[in-house]
Amino acid sequence: MQFNQYGLVLHKNGEALENISYKGIQFQLLASYDGTEVIKHTLDQGTKWTIISSSDWNGLEFLYVLKGSLLVTVDEKKLEIHAGDNLSLAPVKKTCIFEAQKPTEFIYVSSRPVFKNYTDLVEQLKQLGIIVEEKDGYTADHCVRIKEFSLSIGKMLNLSQKELYVLHLGSFLHDIGKVKIPDSILQKPGKLTKEEWDIIKMHPIYGRDILLDSKLPMLMQAATIVEQHHERYDGKGYPFGLKGEEISIGAAIVAVADSLDAMTTDRVYRKARTWEEAVQEIKRGSGTLYNPRVVDAFLAIESNLKKMGGFV
């Protein structure tokens, strides 16, 4: 209902201009005018939402908690806010991570339009997620486990919140490039020929290009992890033969998490190894296959990862 002579627009019963949702979070665009947007966020418990800092932005961001509570992390500092609390940032100087401690609702006001970015990112993630789940004989659980393993290792290594956010995306989408690899090669039960193996080794480059082509900054940042997750610490990996610290820490983490899950999962060409066997293989690969710092961090929390992966 509109009263145009007063500039008044009434939305009844929770009606919103636009709605979009994805994996535990819902965005509702309640009002938009002259670049300013009012967006209601609804987060399931454990769901994260992020405000990314930008050097070319000096506007206002405002958040008011309607229900539940949020754990706010900036660098390594943490603050819990509850219903009735509000935050204002003008401008955002550091990347802020918000995690719902229980089902939570809040109003977010931004003096720049951001809802289209939400829509573009969610649609990209939905499409990429569907593709990932359909390829390589894996279920969605594989990508989720890689993500959870990677984030736990990243936290153990004291990565910044921004690095963890990029790791979140890169680890989940690490094998997106396999959409361009024929199923006959991916699911071949026997040994691959040299020609088939050369095709397989292109999937990190294909994945990088898919994320770069999205033109979405967060996915573009994750492209390096996707491109490098099969590089080896000793320089004998692919696609570029990077070695040591030439390999991004995010990619080095995903290399360990991916190997762990691959070894403990049944594939068309072999049966799964036990958790203990996989751990020993990763230990043996420290300094050759894997970054020793990442292996040490993995071993420090290995028992927790075992429970997380459902191996107890």
Automatic annotation (TrEMBL):
<dbReference type="InterPro" id="IPR006674">
    <property type="entry name" value="HD_domain"/>
</dbReference>
<protein>
    <submittedName>
        <fullName>Response regulator containing a CheY-like receiver domain and an HD-GYP domain</fullName>
    </submittedName>
</protein>
<feature type="domain" description="HD">
    <location>
        <begin position="139"/>
        <end position="263"/>
    </location>
</feature>
<feature type="domain" description="HD-GYP">
    <location>
        <begin position="117"/>
        <end position="312"/>
    </location>
</feature>
<dbReference type="Pfam" id="PF13487">
    <property type="entry name" value="HD_5"/>
</dbReference>
<dbReference type="InterPro" id="IPR037522">
    <property type="entry name" value="HD_GYP_dom"/>
</dbReference>
<dbReference type="InterPro" id="IPR014710">
    <property type="entry name" value="RmlC-like_jellyroll"/>
</dbReference>
<dbReference type="InterPro" id="IPR011051">
    <property type="entry name" value="RmlC_Cupin_sf"/>
</dbReference>
<dbReference type="InterPro" id="IPR003607">
    <property type="entry name" value="HD/PDEase_dom"/>
</dbReference>
